[in-house]
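Backbone shape codes
____________________
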Amino acid sequence: MLLFAKIVVVIVALLHIYFLWLEMFAWTTKAKKVFRQFPEDLFEPTKTLAANQGLYNGFLAAGLLWSLFIQDPIWQINVALFFLVCVAVAGIYGALTASKKILVVQGFPALLGIALFLLHLFL
């Protein structure tokens, strides 16, 4: 169970590294294809806001990856759970305020990781 939870942590971290790249470096190019519901004329004026959002996604990815290098198993799980909960909350909030797709892409993998860690702890 723990191995699967750690694999999910890596997947969620990689997703957030992709979000970082998309929002910080490809907002006016590739992001236009990903965020089709966003008005085309707003990409350039919101470039700085998107970059800021991308930076936060990078912090989430860094925290998730950091958790994998913590030697103490309890602290490793606690730190991973903290960052997974942050991602899950962001996914739920995004689904409520922007697009239901965010829950699937961002929220569900984080919730799966949380469930796997909790199963490991309590089974």
